């Protein structure tokens, strides 16, 4: 086969078809790039991912309410836990610090300090503490759970009682 025959227009694709393929390829690349950038613009993707940081002591109002002037260091440690900060230069002062920085959003910081005089609790001061631990249910959820448990207990037949079958079956889900 001669080089002229190999390069003839009969063996090659038409110039219009070649141009259409280039446009299609460029369009596909542009579409892919636009799709990738659209995914990055969403705030739910979180680029880069930032994990939440939680440090220090979580204290509650209930714990602070248990403090009484004249308590020993061991009693205070039992009520509040070990302090996050103790200073050699200020041995009569314990600092309880709590810091929480979510992956996105504002940081939360609370400070609480207790002072001792002659190894007994003299005074305390600090930020207002929350009324519950983070894992505790709120009051409404707790009351609903108790009510569901009572309703469930009332629906069950009692073994060895009139009307009871002696077996307990699970309630049906509606």
Protein described:
With 174 residues, this protein is of the alpha+beta class. Helices cover 35% and strands 18% of the residues. The protein is built from five helices and five strands. Strands 1, 2, 3, 4 and 5 form a five-stranded antiparallel sheet that branches. The protein is elongated.
> How many strand segments?
5
**Low-confidence runs of at least 5 consecutive residues:** none
User: What is the CA–CA distance across the termini?
Assistant: 81 Å
Radius of gyration: 35 Å
Most strands sheet:
5 strands, antiparallel
Instruction: Assess the beta-strand content as a share of residues.
Output: 15-25%
Residues in helices, as a percent range: 25-40%
SS-derived structural category: alpha+beta
The secondary-structure element order is: HHEHHEEEEH
Our count of helices gives 5
Mean pLDDT: 76
Shape label = elongated
List the helices and strands and how they pair.
Blueprint: H1 3-6, H2 15-41, E1 53-56, H3 61-65, H4 73-80, E2 85-86, E3 93-101, E4 108-117, E5 120-126, H5 139-155
Antiparallel strand pairs: 1-3, 2-3, 3-4, 4-5
Outline of the structure:
35% of the residues lie in helices and 18% in strands. It is built from five helices and five strands, in the order H-H-E-H-H-E-E-E-E-H. The longest helix is centred in the first third of the chain and has 27 residues, at 15-41.
List key phrases describing it.
single chain; 174 residues; alpha+beta; 5-stranded antiparallel beta sheet; 5 helices; 18% strand
